[in-house]
Amino acid sequence: MAYVxxxxxxxxxxxxxxxxxxxxxxxxxxxxxxxxxxxxxxTCAGECPNEAIVxx
Length: 56
What we know:
There is one protein chain. By secondary structure, the chain is of the alpha+beta class. The chain has one domain: Alpha-Beta Plaits (2-Layer Sandwich), CATH 3.30.70. It contains 2 helices and 4 strands, in the order βαββαβ. It has helices at 14-18, 43-47, and strands at 3-5, 24-26, 31-33, 53-55. The strands form 2 sheets. A two-stranded antiparallel ribbon has the order 1-4. Strands 2-3 form a two-stranded antiparallel sheet. The longest helix is centred in the first third of the chain and has 5 residues, at 14-18. It is globular. The protein starts with a strand and ends with a strand.
């Protein structure tokens, strides 16, 4: 199951920079993860300074 970005996201972009597959893009008010591209590596969750990324 892909990771998801919660409303705790402040759109800093750290997760997008950390994603090895470029599965994260800027959305409307927060970043979003493309579930079809995400391979559940967890890199983004480990890098998020606000702990806004959780397993979906």
